Amino acid sequence: MRTQVAIIGGGPAGLLLAQLLHIAGIDSVVLEQRSRAYVEARIRAGVLEQGTVDLLDKVGAATRLHAEGLLHDGVMLVADGQSFRIDLHGLTGKPVTVYGQTELTRDLNAILAEREQPVFEAQDVALHDVATDKPFVTYRKDGRDVRLDCDFIAGCDGAHGVSHTAIPKDLLKTYERLYPFGWLGLMADVPPCSPELIYSNHPRGFALASMRSTQRSRYYVQVPLDEKIADWPDERVWDELALRLGPEAAAGMTRGPSLEKSIAPLRSYVAEPMRHGRLFLAGDAAHIVPPTGAKGLNLAASDAHYLSGALIDFYRTGTQKGLDGYSAQALARVWKAVRFSWWFTQLMHRFPGDDDFAHKVQMAELDYLSRSPAAATAMAENYVGLPF
C-alpha cells in the first residue's frame, strides 16, 4: 500500500488531521490499534475551545455539535464557602462549548468511514526509516502483514503508543511533573447541578461539577493516588461532592447510578522536539496536561491545525518551511497550555504536606481573581484558548 501521510492513532488528533488533509486533496491512512467500538466508548474530555469548534466546522464535523453542544459563557470558582464567576465571554468575547470527546470522535469517524477509514485493529504497528525521505509503516491486519509506504508519518497514538519511541532517546528530551493525587470521575444520566462548570477548592480536596448534556453529568473529586475505586461506592462519591461543592450546588444535585467511574492520576508531560525526520508527533504522543484547564483535546486540535497547514504548503508549493517550523510553533502553544494547567491545578487543589501558609496564598490568589478584572481576563483568555 502507499499513501502520502500515514497517521498512527485514531483519536481526535489523528482523525482531525486526516480530514483536514482530505479536504485539501491529500491522501492519508489512519491506523488505529483498537476497535471502533472501543475508541468510541472511551470517556474523555468535554470542553472545547472556539478554535477547536472552528476546525470542526471547517472539516464538516460540527453539525451535531451545534445541535447538542452547550455554550458556556462563564465558570464558577468556589473556595472556603465563597464563590465567584469568571465571565469568559464578557472578558474575551468567546465562550467554550461543552461537547464530549466521545461524541466528537464518533462524528469524525462517521465522516472518515465514507472512504473506509480508519483501519481499526491494526496490530504490531512499527515505524521504519523515519529519518529518511522514504519512511514506511508495517502492521498486521486480519492475520496479514501489511507494508504502508508514505511521504510522512504523523504520530497521534498517545503517550503509550509507538510513535514517540521512534525518536532516538539521545534526541528526545522529556519534561514531566507528577501530581500527588488523582481525580475520581463519575458519569451519571442526571441533570447537572449547575448551568455552568463549578471548580471548588475545599479543605477535603478539589471537586468539579461538569456535564456532557442537559441530562448527563460528569463529576470529579480529588483523591490520593493509592485510593481504590472499590472503596468509593456511588453514595460515598455523591456525599463527598455535596460537601466539597457547597450547599448551593448540593441543593441542585440529582443523584443517580454511575454509568462510569474511574480514578485517573494527574501529570504534566512534554516531549521535545515534536519532529524527527519525516515523523511528526501530535496530541498526547507529545504532551499531556492535567485536566484542570481542559486543554488536552484542544492541544490535539491545534497540533492538527499546525501540522496540516505545513503539509498542505509542502504539497502545494514544495516549501518545507512549515514542516521545519512545526515543532517550535506547536510547542510555543503547548507550553503556554502546560503553564495554565499547572497554575490552575496549583490554585484549586490541596497538596499533601501543604501548611497554612500555602492555603493562605491560594485564598489570596482567588480573592485577587475575584476582584481584579486584569487577573480575571488573564485566566479567561487562557481558559477559552489562546489563538492559534
Notes on the structure:
- The chain has 388 residues and is an alpha+beta fold.
- The chain has helices at residues 12-23, 36-41, 50-58, 63-68, 88-92, 101-112, 234-245, 247-251, 296-317, 321-348, 356-371, 373-384, and strands at residues 5-8, 28-31, 47-48, 70-72, 74-79, 82-87, 96-98, 123-128, 136-141, 144-149, 152-155, 173-188, 198-201, 207-213, 216-223, 258-272, 275-276, 279-281, 287-288.
- The longest helix is centred in the C-terminal third of the chain and has 28 residues, at 321-348.
- Helix 1 (12-23) packs parallel to helix 9 (296-317) and helix 11 crosses helix 12 (373-384).
- Strand 14 (207-213) and strand 15 (216-223) form a beta hairpin.
- It has 2 domains: 5-70 and 97-175 and 268-345, FAD/NAD(P)-binding domain (3-Layer(bba) Sandwich), CATH 3.50.50; 177-266 and 349-384, D-Amino Acid Oxidase, Chain A, domain 2, CATH 3.30.9.
- It starts with a strand and ends with a helix.
Spatial strand order of the main sheet: 6-5-13-14-15-12-16-19
Name of the CATH first level of the largest domain: Alpha Beta
Number of spatially distinct domains: 2
CATH topology of the largest domain: FAD/NAD(P)-binding domain
| End-to-end gap | 34 Å
SS summary, helix count? 12
What is the CATH superfamily label of the largest domain? FAD/NAD(P)-binding domain
CATH A-level architecture of the largest domain: 3-Layer(bba) Sandwich
Rg, Å, rounded: 21 Å
**What is the number of beta strands?**
19
Instruction: Give the DSSP E fraction (strand runs of 2 or more residues).
Output: 25-35%
Q: Which parts are unreliable, with pLDDT below 50 for 5 consecutive residues or more?
A: none
